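Reviewer 2 asked us to include a model.

Predict the structure of this chain.
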Amino acid sequence: MKVYLNGHELDFTLENETNAGQVLDQIETLAEENNATIVHIQINGETVPAEEIEKCYSMSLDTVDAMQITTVQQDDIVVSLKDLEAPVTEISAKLEQIPVLLQHHKDGEVAEILKRFADSFDSMCQLAALSSLFPARFQSLQFSNLNFQDYLKDFSPILNQFEEALKSGDTVLTGDLAEWELKPRLDQFIESIKEFN
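Predicted model (structure tokens):
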């Protein structure tokens, strides 16, 4: 049986493990010792969803040719958050320009800003999900007294209004929401990330 961790084959020696679940337990222990956790598992090329992990304990190692395991480290999440600071800062500045761009019918520029905002917001959501795997490390990451998940939920009503304003062609409301609602929330993200270690 071959075991791959983050794409690299492990020099792995079986001790008393008789099933795939026991091997995963050993790798999770190793991951925890390195401030990491398992986020994806494939056995014989098939993804094992989290809700089916118990099935691994009834999977004999005789039936396992390969296990591919992906982990994430706490420090990698912090680095990714810090890496978002520059693009989010740029997007925040551009959100402030949306009202003027809309007045001058520069819809293409507005669309590009919104695409970049959506991409960054998607990254923020993914990082929030990963950070929730390490509550002790990330509970101190606060955005105006909101934890990461609640901070992102706070965007929902604004994003819904923003989408409706775009659909209806209400350029005044679109511009106002970009400048007075989305921009301050992104500025809070930037400030909180700068202070977080």
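Helices lie at 20-33, 74-95, 98-103, 107-131, 135-138, 148-153, 155-168, 171-195. The CA atoms of residues 92 and 183 lie 5 Å apart. We have added this to the supplementary material.
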